[in-house]
């Protein structure tokens, strides 16, 4: 890595406490994401992946360890970061352009420049003609693209994506993967991406982090050395398959590799 990391977690631990029980979800979790890197996180359900993203975004505070974003300790929700969730979560009474502009409205006045950039993003994701239509008039994949535009409109340094394509059918998901690869390469954002799909992680990533659970920590950091831009054809190469196999085995054998 040539530049300093945009995200640095050092020995992060998270214990949820209630009156009845304590649940240590993360323990000794250490990771970095470099500027402009695409890094995926894979691991079992309940392993602490969403918890990890919430900690990085400043929504919750870890009980152990340190989190730095752009070299600064995270102690509140950061504005140069945006999050995309599994569901698009769009406001049904606003048209698509107004949904994309929502984060700018929260920050104050929406200028013509912002509106023009929102339109540019909608155009980039093939949605220019739907700007004045409402979310219910779009397919699931199109709605998720609106959510991605909304996450990009504030020019965030970093995008955190929590299974953004989990609810989509396989074909739409494949085309969204291509779309996201293009957006990432055109905008130069740093992306931390959670997925349950190993092929999706291999296809998109510079590195794939495997999270072992109970408690969660990074048990493997795999560099995906495949040429870019990646196409559908790459998915059927022996090299691609080898990465899938390796990661799948690491997830299965998580306890023995810690
Ligand atoms: N606010 C909370 N209070 C108490 N426990 C929580 C809270 N949020 C999450 N947990 C617990 O932390 C563990 C990890 O949850 P988390 O949502 O981070 O997992 P995940 O890896 O994102 O799972 P999935 O792949 O199913 O989305 C689970 O056991 C969950 O019950
Ligand atoms: Mg989750």
Automatic annotation (TrEMBL):
It comes from the Bacteria. It holds the Pfam family ABC_tran. The keyword Metal-binding does not apply. Residues 7-238 form the ABC transporter domain. Gene3D superfamilies: P-loop containing nucleotide triphosphate hydrolases (3.40.50.300). Keywords: ATP-binding, Nucleotide-binding, Transport. GO terms for molecular function: ATP binding; ATP hydrolysis activity. The keyword Plastid does not apply. InterPro entries: AAA+_ATPase (IPR003593), ABC_transporter-like_ATP-bd (IPR003439), ABC_transporter-like_CS (IPR017871), ABC_transporter_ATP-bind (IPR050166), P-loop_NTPase (IPR027417). This is ABC transporter ATP-binding protein. It comes from Acrocarpospora pleiomorpha.
